[in-house]
Hints:
Blueprint: E1 2-8, H1 11-25, E2 30-37, H2 49-54, E3 59-63, H3 72-93, E4 99-103, H4 107-116, E5 123-126, H5 137-146, E6 150-153, H6 156-166, E7 173-175, H7 179-186, H8 192-199, E8 207-211, H9 222-236, E9 241-245, H10 253-266, E10 270-273, H11 278-287, E11 290-293, H12 296-300, E12 309-312, E13 325-328, H13 332-342, H14 358-370
Parallel strand pairs: 1-2, 1-4, 2-3, 4-5, 5-6, 6-7, 8-9, 8-11, 9-10, 11-12, 12-13
GO molecular function, one term: hydrolase activity, acting on glycosyl bonds
Protein name: UDP-N-acetylglucosamine 2-epimerase
Domain UDP-N-acetylglucosamine 2-epimerase: 23-366
Amino acid sequence: MIKVGVLTSSRADYGIYLPLLRTMENDKDVDLKIIVFGTHLSKLHGYTLSQIESDGFKAFRKIESLLLGDTPNAIASGYSLTAMKFSEFWEENKHEFDVVFALGDRFEMAAAVAASVPYQVKIAHLHGGETTLGAIDNIYRHSISLSSSLHFVSTEAFKNRLVQLLDNDHDKIFNVGSLSLENLVAMPLLTIDEFQKKWDIDLNMESILVTVHPETVAFELNEQYCTEVSIALEQLSANYQIVITMPNADTSGMIYRLAFEKLGKKYENIKVIENFGTQSYFTCMKHSKLMIGNTSSGIVEAATFKKYVLNLGDRQKGRLSGENVIHLPFKADKIITTTQSYMGKKFSGINLYYQTNPSQRILEIIYEHYATV
């Protein structure tokens, strides 16, 4: 029997975790406990705990620590509050787990992991070794890696980078590919009719999926960036249906949120969704002609659906990307003309992040390192 904890703080990491959660749930020798916090518990961000529960999982513990503001002070205070609440959680539950999974690079994830260090909790980190120069997530990701005992990366390049960062050998770092791509193989997506019935959005129309998050390094430029994106989407909506998903809880995120809500109210062809959930998001990606934004889903998953992605700005700068990713500045005219150039094209290359059965490989490695009799 192995006692496994999973830290999930947002819709984004939960969607990636899902195949691993299913694999562990179906293994009688795994005692799975899910710790839910962050935007999962925020009604402003869609209260995505309900998605976890509708998928048949239960929260072992719900930890509320997210502040509603998006200023640097609010983010720093949210980090501090999360670390404080998790210090209490680890104090009470440090013996409940043989290993605890942490994924990605969110500030609240980094805070939860930082609080575990004095308690010597064994952390297994997913998606370490990556680089996003336009987001302070880079710092949080590396801090999680430095606090972890085991590492599961998505490419060989990220494994090599992590070896350098940790200044150790390869025996605790495993290249398993991207967990999220396992979703695309295993998850039944909605039909166009099912999607329309659920969301009142007709994907028979030529559609563009838009997911834009704030840049958190040069956060003072977000107002300018948001204006450029809004101008582009406003003009593109004359010819295409624009489907926008709302940004994460990051510094200056409210700037984009308010602008997108305004566009959605003004233009019938612009649809704004708080949170699709994994199945509907991938369904929309599959049937859209193109993606615009600066999200990791454009870097990792879009190539599997043979979609071109217009990646805006520097948020994902430094992250390994395929030939389907077109890098652009936050300039309305560039976004419009490049969109028009790529709307009729289909990507024919491979996905650099794909490997078979990553969840099963991860579980086998966990057994080797942490299973107890």
